[in-house]
């Protein structure tokens, strides 16, 4: 197995020691070094901007029409940072510990500690950029709580935190574009990594407007391309989110780690029918004030508001009194599934539970506002009116979104919610420097596997994306590039570029020439169904073995019966999608192989064979205390490498939120 | 909510690329559920077209939850369709009834040339941001996030302006194809914060000059932009922009 390059020494000194000793590149040499950044979400935009500021020559790529549209923009609830502004006992150590525990002891200690350390710098940076975080009346920054923690460390901007953070990074990026330090290629998709003498030296990209293939050289390549939740077809990801960039790297030799670690988010708007193209998240922040319940009797057909208090089962509060509605996502999702499978689900499909705001709207906000305004013995109507105003300010846009989609008013009736695929903890294996096992090829943000173990805590994805891009890569990439200063830009006429472009072109031609009968969308839907049913919230060996066979069969069908309309050299969204779905087919198979090999339950990976008598995930630390790193050997053939996880600081225990 | 099924007639703008002339095509779609989103109805139509061996309709979309700003359809004469404060992707079919005819066009503005069908080029917006829509700080700020308190009312106003998603509906709705609402939202977002104070003048002058250079028209304050903005950005931002612009123009040459 490759060295994780975690520095030696005490945990809390590793990062400062690393920064004190890593190699530097002088400003004159930086101008001669070129870096390619693929993806412009929080990780990519922050990396491209920061590296441009340092003086490197950067080329950034995104498939959307503008870098501002990357899916980080859809993150709602917030971003964690160990600022302890609330004086409620937070610290860098506690954020580190919560993240390790939340990830069910499957993340690398050194990376996570560094993440907690730089979290405080992120907030300072964003405020300086003009990110309009929520503030209190005294003018200072406000915080709220997220799952898996007992402190308030989440910074937010209503229900649009991701948008505000991304706009901050995007503006920093556009500033570098204006200064000529970054060249931006929007509506471009990376379709191959180019290796020269074993190092990543460029990419082949396709211009999505005219279909032309382009060759781009870089001394180093950064993949900041997000997660692969769309392998399930239905997820909270944007329609364009895909695995292709990291999968191309995997096919060139980069290890893919923990692919089966998928986060199923507990609070999403339930599926209504076959036409559905995506699922919509209702932010975890809603669990600050929303109480989750189902009726105590099976198949109760009464309307939510007609069910009296005593006949409601607040099952999270019942099962997990210490954390209540704020247990981590994996725990909350499984608990919802358990209730619905047992016949207590609500709504027309019975695949939903209630998320109810009435109690806090009245008792928490209504009463506080009434007290503030000096209203004594307020009646119910006044409390509801006053409470609504506060709830509107905190979550207004989420409530509106819910109403637009479902046609129901969540101020009046409880939301109906159900778990949905949201985030993928797995990704390209990277070392402490965020470099894959291919020299010069880096992976940042959700695209790598590094910080969240088997389950990510809420409000930590934004933190990781920005940590990697603003504060980690600017240091670690220098340690590599310092040895590359003598390397002259390689002309794109080099045989490696020639061969890579030819391979890409042949694959596109092959796809176009299948000329079968089935659309990309219909095949993607079928893949998603297999993945959701057999590699979703609960998995077992039999189902996974079946899924592997079914995916292999579906892949054959894809390559023999696919129909793509239009031509290669024009804007052709169906062709773009076909390439992505072809990669999802291969990834789906590896996810099932990984889930089958990991004979334990941990975090989001729940194997039915391995559970405690109370139905909690049962880890098997003696056998599985490692990161799985899969190397592709041929079609449907992978070799497993293991990175042992050594816990020096935290003592792994059975995770308990009771 | 009761759901229902409908059959519809669609008249959609088809245009092969920027160099060719486009025209309307008529399509029939059947058995559309009122629970579908408008874009899901387009998915159904495209699947049908692919099945029939015809060219599907190209349209921009990504997050499908109303925040990325990618979707952009001019529906029955209104950007993003009939619902107030809503992007196309959040518009649901219960806004229509059985037998309706729906006309769908791309954004129309010289500064937003059509790429294909309903897809337009909005990179002019990125170039306007490049002309000053930022605060010039490099990564590595060490000033604590709470070092400068910001009045809540101002922070809230700044946030309201910053919630612009850059979709371009304001331009599409304007008879002059003016980008004033977009530009003013960014100017207001940054001018309302103490961090944005130092570059107030250069920012507003730079952004307005770029806006003119891109070929966006003048603002005659009809307020059509606010009426169709999916994020309900207020036209008071335009007043703020004008004030900022005046102040900057009067004093920018003096080293005050």
Describe how the helices and strands are arranged.
The complex is a heterodimer of chains A (658) and B (256).
Chain A: H1 14-21, H2 27-30, E1 34-38, H3 42-54, E2 57-61, E3 79-80, H4 92-102, H5 109-129, E4 154-155, H6 161-179, E5 182-185, E6 188-196, E7 199-207, E8 213-217, E9 220-223, H7 244-251, E10 256-257, E11 262-268, E12 291-295, E13 312-313, H8 315-319, H9 329-341, E14 353-356, H10 358-372, H11 380-406, E15 415-424, E16 427-428, E17 441-443, H12 461-481, H13 495-512, H14 520-534, H15 541-561, H16 573-597, H17 621-624, E18 626-634, E19 637-644
Chain B: E1 5-14, E2 23-33, H1 38-51, E3 74-75, E4 78-79, E5 101-105, E6 114-116, E7 119-120, H2 123-130, H3 152-162, H4 169-173, H5 180-191, H6 200-213, H7 224-228, H8 236-251
Parallel strand pairs in B: 1-5
Antiparallel strand pairs in B: 1-2, 3-4, 3-5, 6-7
Helix pairs in contact in B: 2-6, 3-5, 5-6, 5-8, 6-8
What does this molecule look like?
- The complex is a heterodimer of chains A (658) and B (256).
- With 658 residues, chain A is an alpha+beta fold.
- Chain A is 38% helix and 15% strand.
- Chain A has 17 helices and 19 strands.
- Chain A has helices spanning 14-21, 27-30, 42-54, 92-102, 109-129, 161-179, 244-251, 315-319, 329-341, 358-372, 380-406, 461-481, 495-512, 520-534, 541-561, 573-597, 621-624, and strands spanning 34-38, 57-61, 79-80, 154-155, 182-185, 188-196, 199-207, 213-217, 220-223, 256-257, 262-268, 291-295, 312-313, 353-356, 415-424, 427-428, 441-443, 626-634, 637-644.
- In chain A, the strands form five sheets. Chain A has a five-stranded parallel beta sheet with strand order 5-2-1-9-17.
- In chain A, helix 3 links the parallel strand 1 (34-38) and strand 2.
- In chain A, helix 3 runs parallel beside helix 12, helix 4 (92-102) crosses helix 5 (109-129) and helix 5 (109-129) crosses helix 12.
- Chain A is globular.
- The mean pLDDT of chain A is 96.
- Chain B folds into two domains: 5-105, Beta-grasp domain (Ubiquitin-like (UB roll), Roll); 123-251, Fumarate Reductase Iron-sulfur Protein, Chain B, domain 2.
- Chain B has 256 residues and is α+β, with helices and mostly antiparallel strands.
- The mean pLDDT of chain B is 96.
- Chain B contains eight helices and seven strands.
- In chain B, helix 5 (180-191) crosses helix 8.
- Classes of the chains: A alpha+beta (658), B alpha+beta (256).
- The interface between A and B is large, with 84 and 80 residues.
